[in-house]
Amino acid sequence: MPSASMLVRMERSEVTHEDGGSKGVILNISSASGMYPVPLLTVYSATKAFVDFFSRGLHAEYKSRGVTVQSVLPFFVATKLSKVRKPTWDKPSPEAYVRSALNTVGLQTRTNGYLPHALMGWVTGSLLPSCLSTKLAMNVNKGLRARFLKRVKKN
Ligand SMILES: NC(=O)c1ccc[n+]([C@@H]2O[C@H](COP(=O)([O-])OP(=O)(O)OC[C@H]3O[C@@H](n4cnc5c(N)ncnc54)[C@H](OP(=O)(O)O)[C@@H]3O)[C@@H](O)[C@H]2O)c1
Known about the structure:
The chain is mainly α. It has 5 helices and 3 strands; from the N terminus they run H-E-H-E-H-E-H-H.
């Protein structure tokens, strides 16, 4: 897990440089996939759960010194990584997402960052039992994988 250990090293050195009086905000990009296990994206999901836990722990350690560590857990955003080309109400452009997420700084230390994502996070993270959210994610990813394999076979 090189990205996880890099995150730990970067932030440890950043926060230990903070002297007693200075303030700062660190935004760590986790993912909604880190809120519960997401089968067929298991390693990604586990790494994002690490980012979320790490951020929350670090925030508790350093808030008294004026350092805020925010954990950001987006659902889909229309980027190169997600392969979503056209932004929609639930899959915003990166600009729209970032604008909205930045408005939560100072208000929330753990956020889905965008109102429709917050609603999705509430349903899948709090309303549904974790086993159901995981089952739902499994079915969605099975469908995505089947579509991908069909496309690969066709080309
Ligand atoms: N998009 C989503 O739906 C979504 C949902 C939840 C969480 N996230 C998280 O959001 C974060 C950003 O993702 P994104 O969707 O914005 O992805 P993206 O559009 O693919 O952008 C990733 C960025 O990281 C840079 N990058 C990748 N590997 C790198 C490396 N080894 N060293 C330095 N820079 C590197 C890329 O540079 P180049 O442009 O030069 O390749 C690019 O600027 C990720 O942590 C992702 O897990 C995304």
